[in-house]
Design brief:
It holds the Pfam family Ank_2. This protein is mainly α and 121 residues long. It has a single domain, classed as Ankyrin repeat-containing domain (Serine Threonine Protein Phosphatase 5, Tetratricopeptide repeat, Alpha Horseshoe), CATH 1.25.40.20. Helices cover 49% and strands 0% of the residues. The protein is built from 7 helices and no strands. Helix 2 packs parallel to helix 4 and helix 6 runs antiparallel to helix 7. The radius of gyration is 14 Å and the shape is globular.
């Protein structure tokens, strides 16, 4: 899924893996939001910024946690993304809890997310 071969071709042809849209959304965020774990892996291996945030402060990890896309989260965790409070005042763990994604919560806790962090929203 996620047009993996097209992504590979674009990256091989010099496409900028971190080039955001006007709202600050990077390709990695979009792939994470759509649940395309293979695309996420390829982008990370090509140097995608694991902590790139949209203008609203959300990151790829937070969005994947919100959606419960554990395959995506596992790929992101291989690159040590920020597990703490983000610029928008919340964290991926908060997003997972608010969405009721128990498996996602467990995955983030195992990765070292701090359950005692308080959001700032």
């Amino acid at each position: 899924g996620g047009y993996l071969n097209v992504i590979r071709l674009l990256l091989a042809s010099g496409a900028k893996v971190n080039q955001p849209r006007q709202d600050g959304t990077a390709p990695l965020w979009i792939a994470s939001q759509m649940g395309h774990s293979e695309v996420v892996r390829v982008m990370l291996l090509r140097g995608a910024d694991r902590d790139a945030a949209r203008n609203d402060g959300t990151t790829a990890l937070l969005k994947a946690a919100n959606k419960g896309y554990n395959d995506v989260i596992e790929e992101l965790l291989k690159f040590s993304p920020t597990l703490g409070i983000l610029k928008n005042g919340t964290s991926a763990l908060h997003a997972a809890v608010l969405s009721g994604n128990i498996k996602t919560v467990a995955l983030l806790l195992e990765a070292g997310a701090d359950p005692s962090l308080r959001n700032k929203v």
